[in-house]
């Protein structure tokens, strides 16, 4: 069920800078969403508009079908967890978490019970009397979440809230946040510039660049079918090669024609082809679809990152097996591993092409 809708939202700041251009998005209840994009792409501006801390220049914000565009932040059923947690350093854990309820003059017994529940949800049982300064970064983060969920918001907005944590703690908190979201069953909208984080946590991701949504969809869909080169480059490592569509299910790149899974593009049209480094299998030179020579190799703990040259371009390969510098190797990939992108295609155009193609009745059932 749709809980939040942004309808043709734009935002121009007072100095004339246009931070958002025609943002349309639909948020369903009970799911985990990420707003993912590089610094300055407009993520926080979207979150602030949803929260009611900023007004859009044009467009409307809907909550459960009702226009809440001008509604005060305090009257929305949302809560925000900020990057710096914004905890009160002079209050202990209990007082920090209880703060919002006390403000609403909730009876003391109810406050005690709710604080206990909230601390239990974030796995901080027994921490009520600790001072904020006596907590680790991850624990402070969890206090901030407890404080935000105690008001039972319908939507929790999280702004880069893991970015201050070290890598190990960050991974731990990713799992925990996801678990908390599942347990509470409320909608989380999570702002991050870290693509791995967004892929690991989200039901759905909105990829932003330059104040526009580039693509939205499940992590798998966005990773496997990037609609343009920005998304392909931003989400994971990619080999992006210039190519030309020969006909449906056949594309030319690296000097050869290859069977692919894409259709609905005019024959002869210039395209870009994405091959993910982990989809390239290393074989004997004569068994590969292309033959390349190894330039360099880095061991990254769980895989080797190999750079190679051949077929008129440079290749990035992820492999669990190492190779030798200078070695000739074959690269094998399946037709489904080749992702063809039209130059400058937007998400809407991509969807329309897919639909019209599937609509012909000739497309794949998948
Ligand atoms: N009050 C303001 N006045 C003018 N420009 C602003 C204002 N606030 C933000 N901006 C600009 O709007 C753009 C989007 O900012 P926003 O904070 O939404 O980006 P972001 O994607 O969240 O970036 P980051 O990851 O760095 O926080 C940026 O170029 C920023 O400089």
Automatic annotation (TrEMBL):
Kindly indicate whether the keyword Iron belongs to this entry. Answer: no
Q: Which UniProt keywords apply?
A: ATP-binding, Cell membrane, Membrane, Nucleotide-binding, Translocase, Transport
Q: Which InterPro entries match?
A: AAA+_ATPase, ABC_SmlMolc_Importer, ABC_transporter-like_ATP-bd, ABC_transporter-like_CS, Mo/tungstate-bd_C_term_dom, P-loop_NTPase, PotA_ATP-bd, Transp-assoc_OB_typ2
PANTHER family according to UniProt: SPERMIDINE/PUTRESCINE IMPORT ATP-BINDING PROTEIN POTA, SPERMIDINE_PUTRESCINE IMPORT ATP-BINDING PROTEIN POTA
Translocase as UniProt keyword: yes
Gene Ontology cellular-component annotations:
ATP-binding cassette (ABC) transporter complex
User: Residue limits of the ABC transporter domain?
Assistant: 4-235
- GO molecular function (one): ATP binding
Specify the protein name: ABC transporter ATP-binding protein
**Family annotation (SMART domains):** AAA
């Amino acid at each position: 069920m749709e809980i939040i809708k942004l309808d043709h939202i734009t935002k121009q700041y007072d100095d004339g800078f246009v931070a958002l251009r025609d943002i349309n998005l639909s948020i369903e209840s009970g799911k985990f969403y990420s707003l993912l994009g590089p610094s300055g792409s407009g993520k926080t501006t979207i979150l602030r508009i949803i929260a009611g801390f900023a007004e859009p220049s044009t467009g409307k914000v809907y909550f459960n079908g009702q226009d809440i565009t001008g509604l005060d932040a305090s009257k929305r059923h949302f809560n925000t967890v900020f990057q710096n947690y914004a905890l009160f350093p002079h209050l202990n854990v209990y007082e920090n978490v209880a703060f919002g309820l006390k403000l609403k003059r909730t009876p003391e017994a109810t406050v005690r019970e709710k604080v206990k529940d909230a601390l239990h949800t974030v796995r901080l049982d027994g921490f009520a009397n600790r001072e904020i300064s006596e907590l680790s970064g991850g624990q402070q983060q969890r206090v901030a979440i407890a404080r935000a969920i105690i008001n039972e918001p319908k939507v929790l907005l999280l702004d880069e809230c893991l970015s201050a944590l070290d890598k190990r703690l960050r991974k731990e908190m990713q799992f925990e946040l996801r678990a908390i979201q599942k347990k509470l069953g409320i909608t989380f909208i999570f702002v991050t510039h870290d693509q791995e984080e967004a892929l690991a946590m989200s039901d759905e991701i909105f990829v932003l660049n330059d104040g526009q949504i580039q693509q939205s969809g499940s992590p798998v869909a966005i990773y496997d079918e990037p609609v343009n080169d920005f998304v392909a480059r931003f989400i994971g490592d990619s080999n992006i090669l210039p190519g030309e569509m020969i006909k449906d299910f056949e594309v030319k790149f690296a000097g050869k024609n290859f069977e692919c899974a894409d259709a609905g593009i005019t024959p002869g049209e210039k395209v870009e082809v994405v091959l993910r480094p982990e989809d390239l299998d290393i074989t004997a030179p004569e068994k590969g679809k292309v033959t390349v020579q190894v330039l360099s190799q880095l061991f990254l703990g769980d895989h080797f990152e190999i750079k190679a040259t051949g077929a008129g371009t440079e290749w990035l390969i992820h492999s669990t097996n190492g190779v030798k510098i200078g070695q000739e190797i074959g690269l094998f990939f399946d037709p489904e591993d080749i992702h063809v992108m039209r130059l400058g295609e937007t998400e809407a155009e991509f969807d329309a092409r897919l639909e019209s193609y599937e609509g012909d009745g000739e497309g794949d059932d998948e």
